[in-house]
UniProtKB/TrEMBL annotation:
Protein name from the UniProt record: PpiC domain-containing protein
Keywords: Cell membrane, Chaperone, Isomerase, Membrane, Rotamase, Transmembrane, Transmembrane helix
Similarity comment: Belongs to the PpiD chaperone family.
Source organism per UniProt: Aurantiacibacter marinus
Keyword Hydrolase set for record: no
Length: 643
């Protein structure tokens, strides 16, 4: 229910998470593919970007945090480049959050709070990226993770300490927050309010210039809006697949080799026996003996088990060593000692006390060398092929690292090199419908981390199909050349000019209405051909259910009764002037679900409001000194403006 309300009023949430956890650890160890898209320090402007109280935020800290934030953003936008991330304000957001987090930590220490070594140790042990395959902390995994991300233990500990101080200070603020019932009731009533008024629309096309812009105008527009035309990075990949046929020229298996393998594996070919059992497992020896006594009295093993709420299981065609590995040596010995049809037990095994009925005994005769010669030959050929493939792939990998080219390797393997069109990090073909060939799916991500003309090898089907590949060409993310997008620029220049003029017209109409004119009369005074004003009567809940929520409807349900406002709906290329005449509210009982749910959910949001106020106060309580030269240098290096 409250989702309806949230659709109308969007506010900042999750500040505890962004302030308490944005850091080297939060994202760097959440996934295994964090890319080092920048460098630590070493930029102009000094080695720090800010000083917060006694804490220094270094260029390395800002670079690493920005890289981590970019990786997190790529989870929802895989083609986002660093240039695009910075242009959209991501870099400034990261810096702001780092300053806030440092200010909170400084304030926490002023209040006497500490993040002890034991607490930091506990956080390290519980970090998934530092755990082994058994789920427990593993020092080798810890050190490997640090090496992979160019971090030191000191950096990790400092970052965790900062986050823990922020948590200790911020989290308690959110606890116990409760919105007064009177306010909760007002908001709950808004969940189903009905509003009446009038709206006038001002389409951009009604005000757009008719002619084309001058060269100077289009150049200025292009320069002012470069971030809107950033193209994602795309790469051309060359590749060739090969199979086990690449090592088909193997020496033949000799009779002597077959005989040697037969002798080495003699235990596999000697006479043996396979047996089938019906078994029942019970907790105690006494219970097992009781079952045996009942069967001796004429009841079947299955019936005896069923009368006790149990069930038998069947083991078919098993050899003694295999049965011993699942039951126990004692159970297997007893089962293979009895005659067919005999009842054996009780015998203690891995799961309890066993009662067995030997349902089948099948002797397996010994097999001579002549009997298994072909089988052994096939095994040896497969082993040789597998070993040769391993040697080939290891050799290719070594030779690639020493400068061997893809063409040279393909010529040796007798395979043809295929070349993709430019593709994006998502695997989609740039500028076209369709995706990269399916066989490249496993290597695209890696290909976007490679340098050009540095071949690699990948296993597509374990032990069967391999691929050699390299990156032939990289087109870095950059703003599209103006000449290539001139038509698009002209259309959007015209649209933006139209939106600006529509906004001015909306402002004129708004001023007339505020002066006492009706919206319809104020609209008629405009020279442009505009649609007539439209009467509105809208219920909030019905509107949300229909999914027709825009900036105009959000404004309509945010206004005070008797007011007039204007708003731009950019996605629709329109401005609106909206007049709200009347608000109808429904009465709510104290136990109304709308009231109770709204009270609970707004109380939770209230804690976030408290946090925002606290963060502002914490920042005001400590001295924050920004090094703008250092900040600009990090920004320039991340976006490639300096190398």
């Amino acid at each position: 229910m409250f989702q309806i309300f949230r659709n109308f009023f969007k506010s900042k949430v999750g500040i505890v998470v962004t302030l308490g956890f944005l850091g080297l650890i939060a994202v760097a160890f959440a996934s295994s593919d964090v890319a080092n898209t920048g460098m630590f320090g070493g930029v102009a402007g000094g080695d720090r970007v800010a000083v917060v109280g006694d804490r220094t935020i270094s260029t390395a800290d800002l670079t690493q945090n920005t890289n981590n934030a970019l990786q997190q953003s790529r989870e929802s936008n895989p083609t986002l480049s660093m240039e695009g991330f910075v242009a959209q304000g991501g870099f400034d957001d990261v810096l702001s959050q780092m300053l806030s987090r440092a200010a909170i930590a400084e304030f926490a220490e002023m209040m006497g709070l500490r993040a002890s070594k034991a607490l930091v140790d506990s956080e390290i042990r519980s970090t998934p990226g530092f755990q082994g395959i058994d789920g427990t902390f593993n020092m080798d995994a810890f050190r490997a993770s640090l090496r992979q991300r160019s971090l030191t233990e000191s950096i990790v500990r400092d970052d965790l300490s900062l986050s823990l101080l922020a948590q200790q200070t911020v989290v308690p603020i959110t606890l116990g927050a409760r919105l007064p019932d009177s306010m909760a009731r007002t908001y709950a009533q808004l969940l189903n309010d009905t509003r009446s008024g009038t709206a006038a629309v001002f389409p951009a096309e009604a005000f757009a210039p008719a002619g084309d812009p001058t060269d100077a105008q289009i150049q200025e527009y292009y320069d002012d809006n470069r971030a809107r035309y950033i193209r994602p990075e795309r790469r051309t990949i060359r590749y060739a697949a090969f199979t086990e046929d690449a090592v088909s020229d193997l020496p033949p298996v000799t009779p002597q080799q077959i005989a040697a393998r037969y002798e080495a594996d003699a235990v596999l070919y000697r006479a043996t026996e396979r047996r089938s059992f019906t078994q029942l497992v019970v907790p105690t020896q006494a219970a097992a003996q009781a079952v045996i006594d009942e069967v001796a009295g004429g009841i079947s093993l299955e019936a005896s088990a069923q009368s006790k709420g149990l069930a038998t299981t069947t083991v078919s065609q098993v050899e003694r060593p295999d049965y011993a590995s699942t039951a126990s040596q004692a159970v297997a010995a007893a089962g293979f000692a009895g005659a067919e049809g005999a009842l054996v037990g009780p015998v203690q095994g891995a799961l309890g006390w066993y009662v067995l009925r030997i349902s089948d005994v099948a002797p397996v005769p010994a097999r001579s060398l002549a009997d298994v010669s072909d089988e052994i030959r096939e095994t040896l050929v497969a082993e040789r092929r597998r070993e040769a493939l391993n040697e080939l792939t290891e050799r290719l990998e070594t030779e690639f690292s020493r400068g061997r080219t893809l063409e040279q390797a393909a010529a040796e393997l007798g395979v043809e090199i295929q070349t993709t069109p430019p593709i994006l990090a998502t695997g989609q073909v740039y500028g076209q419908t369709g995706e990269a060939p399916a066989e490249l799916a496993r290597v695209v991500d890696f290909a976007f981390e490679m340098e050009p003309d540095r071949p690699e090898i990948s296993e597509l089907v374990p032990g069967q199909v391999f691929m050699i590949f390299d990156v032939e060409n990289i087109t870095r993310s950059a703003t599209a050349p103006m000449a290539e997008i001139r038509a698009q620029l002209v259309a959007q220049w015209r649209r933006d000019r139209g939106m600006a003029a529509a906004g001015q017209a909306a402002a004129r109409v708004l001023e007339r209405v505020e002066g006492g004119a009706s919206l319809a009369d104020a609209l008629r005074q405009e020279d442009a051909d505009l649609p007539p004003a439209q009467a509105l009567r809208i219920n909030r809940r019905e509107l949300a259910q229909q999914g027709q929520i825009t900036r105009a409807t959000i404004l309509f349900f945010s206004m005070a009764e008797g007011t007039v406002k204007r708003v731009a709906v950019q996605e629709a290329n329109q401005w609106f002037v909206v007049a709200l005449d009347d608000i109808e509210l429904a009465d709510l009982d104290a136990d109304s679900p709308d009231f109770l749910n709204t009270s609970a959910q707004l109380s939770a949001s209230l804690g976030q409001e408290y946090v925002e106020q606290f963060v502002a106060a914490a920042e005001a309580s400590v001295e924050i000194e920004r090094n703008e030269a250092g900040i600009d240098a990090v920004r320039a290096q991340l976006t490639g403006a300096i190398r």
